[in-house]
Write a structure and sequence with these properties.
Blueprint (H helix, E strand, L loop, with lengths): L1 H17 L2 H33 L3
Helix pairs in contact: 1-2
Length: 56
């Protein structure tokens, strides 16, 4: 999922350079949403890993 975030980020930067404002905003928005989903899943997996190991 982090790969898709980076892909949409690159698409947003390229579109912004060429002046496609709507496309850049859309791709940046998708990248931001995917990043936050990735972040939430990472925190959940870290917490579950700590509880499974006994909290050490």
């Amino acid at each position: 999922m982090l790969r898709w975030t980076l892909i949409f980020l690159v698409v947003a930067v390229i579109a912004a350079v060429f002046g496609f404002g709507g496309i850049a905003a859309s791709a940046a928005g998708i990248a931001q949403i995917l990043f936050f989903i990735f972040l939430v899943l990472f925190v959940i997996s870290a917490v579950m890993g700590m509880t499974r190991r006994g909290g050490v």
